Backbone:
């Protein structure tokens, strides 16, 4: 397997690379922070990631895990010396495919990787790939106990709020229990594009783009580095 190692302790990162080599896996590189990890994923898509929770930079390992899951669809195993209740609670909310407590050995890493990748494969095999049809240029949003019909062209953007997505139109907001990956998978072919881990936008509604931000109906929306290249490819640029 191609493995991304995210660890800000240089000696531990080197040790993990050696362990992967012994196990017959390939390290695509080591990253001490989230920004470097994202850059490595853009260069070589890993099969799985070993994530230290306590890393340097603006984002910790749990926040990075969300990006790896939503933007790259990569399974991950948390590796950490911090096993307090609060950390475990945050880690479990992010849904890792494994959790290894430091100090660990070759057998620990081997078992975690094997269990994680097999669980990820089973999850993918169990997914039912259905391609719902957009009828009358509309979709049905499940809001609480109601199904509400919304025209696709009226949707300005979708914003992630925890386990929910807020579908924003000019006049209304609809809160739907969903993931941004599901939103992206369903709507990308209908003129929508993910521009940030928290935003999928209607490309036809963009009025202004400058640096790492865009404007839709006076709403300032950030553009992440991981998503900017794809956004630029989909726009009609002169």
Residues:
């Amino acid at each position: 397997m191609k493995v991304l190692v995210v660890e800000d302790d240089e000696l531990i990162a080197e040790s993990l690379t050696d362990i992967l080599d012994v196990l017959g896996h390939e390290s695509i590189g080591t990253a001490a922070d989230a920004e470097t990890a994202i850059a490595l994923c853009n260069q070589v898509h890993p099969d799985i990631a070993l994530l230290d929770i306590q890393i340097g930079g603006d984002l910790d390992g749990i926040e990075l895990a969300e990006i790896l899951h939503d933007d790259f669809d990569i399974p991950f195993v948390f590796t950490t010396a911090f096993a307090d209740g609060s950390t475990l609670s945050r880690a479990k909310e992010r849904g890792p495919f494994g959790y290894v407590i430091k100090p660990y050995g070759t057998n620990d890493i081997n078992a975690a990787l094997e269990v994680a990748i097999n669980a990820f494969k089973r999850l993918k095999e169990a997914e039912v790939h259905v391609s719902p049809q957009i009828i009358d240029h509309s979709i049905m949003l499940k809001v609480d106990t109601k199904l509400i019909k919304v025209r696709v062209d009226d949707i300005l953007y979708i914003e992630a709020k925890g386990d929910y997505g807020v579908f924003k139109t000019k006049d209304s907001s609809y809160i739907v229990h969903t993931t941004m990956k599901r939103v992206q998978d369903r709507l990308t072919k209908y003129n929508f594009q993910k521009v940030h881990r928290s935003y999928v936008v209607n490309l036809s509604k963009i009025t202004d783009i400058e640096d790492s931000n865009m404007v839709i109906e006076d709403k300032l929306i950030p553009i992440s580095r991981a998503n900017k290249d794809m956004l630029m490819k989909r726009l009609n640029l002169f």
